[in-house]
Design a protein that fits this description.
- By secondary structure, this protein is α/β, with parallel strands linked by helices.
- It has helices at residues 10-14, 33-44, 87-92, 106-115, 127-130; strands spanning 2-5, 21-30, 57-59, 97-100, 118-121, 134-141, 150-164.
- Helix 2 links the parallel strand 2 and strand 3.
- It is globular.
């Protein structure tokens, strides 16, 4: 299993292949539907986004509140195709990777290939388990959205699988 630290290096993700297992360590950002909508609106209006997207990993996740003594609550992936409408704009702005579950549209796969990004999958239905890989959790934008706010997570050996590589190859094909 390959271990990768953030921030991502373009040369490193170019070597990843669809189906490859990876352990991510470093900083990732959560963002779900409403946060994506706001980010895309800011981009389309040439406004500054509340988080610098260049080189970032976006995790399609809306974590539940942490129980006493915990860093984060359940933090499993949400269905990625719900973000497909907004994904090309975020990739153009510099996002290098996304984490979620499920297939991506042809348009998103073309954008992944164009911008040399990568789409990772993580284990659906395992939010409680995935929360154990989160070492720090900090809300950084759109706190009014509650669990759909953007959170900055520090993760250690977070398990993912390359779903779509920089060449546009998908494990679903």
């Amino acid at each position: 299993m390959k271990k990768i630290n953030t921030p991502l290096e373009k040369e490193e993700i170019k070597r990843l292949k669809a189906g490859q297992q990876v352990l991510l360590s470093g900083i990732i950002y959560t963002a779900r539907d409403q946060a994506h909508k706001r980010l895309a609106e800011a981009i389309n209006k040439n406004k500054k986004t509340p988080v610098d997207l260049k080189g970032r990993i976006i995790y399609y996740c809306g974590p539940t509140p942490a129980q006493r003594g915990k860093i984060i609550g359940s933090s499993g992936p949400t269905t990625s195709s719900r973000m497909d409408e907004f994904t090309p704009a975020l990739l153009k702005k510099g996002v290098l990777a996304m984490i979620g579950k499920g297939r991506r549209s042809k348009r998103v796969i073309q954008a992944i290939k164009k911008y040399k990004a990568v789409y990772f999958l993580t284990y659906a239905g395992c939010g409680a388990l995935l929360s154990k890989y989160v070492k720090k959790n900090e809300p950084v934008a759109y706190q009014d959205l509650g669990p759909e706010a953007i959170y900055k997570l520090e993760v250690s050996d977070f398990p993912v699988i390359v779903g779509v590589d920089t060449k546009g190859r998908s494990i679903y094909d």
